[in-house]
Write a structure and sequence with these properties.
Layout (H helix, E strand, L loop, with lengths): L7 H15 L2 H13 L3 H8 L6 H14 L4 H13 L4 H14 L4 H9 L4 H14 L4 H18 L2 H16 L4 H15 L4
Helix pairs in contact: 1-2, 1-3, 2-4, 3-4, 4-5, 5-6, 6-7, 7-8, 8-9, 9-10, 10-11
């Protein structure tokens, strides 16, 4: 039995707990659609914070938030991320990311999703480069740039992409907080430095 809608967080917790026990996605969707039907967007946002890591939960709930608050950039990014993680495809995710960037061109999450959704390896590398130029301290974007540049170098024997990958991995190595991360980066750097076309 679903808890009363007046206690949306409890009802949502009950729905997620039932899903974790049964794995029944259909039943989860039915419960989430029932919960969101009687809830205001701000109440959905507050209740969903604990479950943002679960795209099967965040996605259906944030569909209503975005529907009712189409200029809510955070909601657009959360929905796009949920769609990306659940495999909804780059077109839909890219559309949401572009909408968010049109409203707020400083939103880092929207830029990440924009870069992720590019299907062409070279263009995706260029997008990640643009993100790192916009957000100089964004190590996650730099890691994505390094990985994409390395893949591009290997796939197309591109010396410029190889140099970009090495430079970016070196920067990551210099800013790495742990020895374990440095060791992994050193392995990647050794491979790239010895790469022969």
């Amino acid at each position: 039995m679903i808890a009363p809608l007046l206690d949306l967080p409890a009802a949502l917790a009950e729905s997620v707990a039932a899903y974790e026990v049964t794995g029944n996605v259909g039943a989860l969707m039915e419960r989430l659609h029932h919960l969101r039907a009687g809830a205001m967007p701000d109440a959905i946002v507050a209740a969903t914070e604990t479950w943002l890591h679960m795209p099967e939960v965040a996605g259906p709930l944030y569909e209503k938030v975005v529907d009712e608050q189409p200029n809510n950039v955070r909601a657009l990014v959360i929905l796009a991320n949920a769609y990306w993680l659940s495999g909804r495809g780059p077109e839909l995710v890219g559309e949401l990311a572009n909408r968010a960037l049109t409203i707020d061109p400083t939103n880092r999450g929207a830029w990440h999703l924009w870069a992720l959704t590019e299907g062409n390896q070279r263009d995706r590398t260029v997008r990640w480069l643009q993100v790192t130029q916009r957000f100089h301290d964004d190590m996650l974007a730099k890691a994505a740039l390094a990985d994409n540049a390395a893949s591009l170098a290997a796939a197309e024997h591109d010396k410029e992409a190889l140099a970009l990958a090495i430079t970016t991995y070196e920067e990551l190595w210099n800013n790495s907080p742990t020895e374990q991360q440095r060791a992994a980066l050193e392995t990647a750097l050794t491979t790239l430095r010895n790469y022969k076309f």
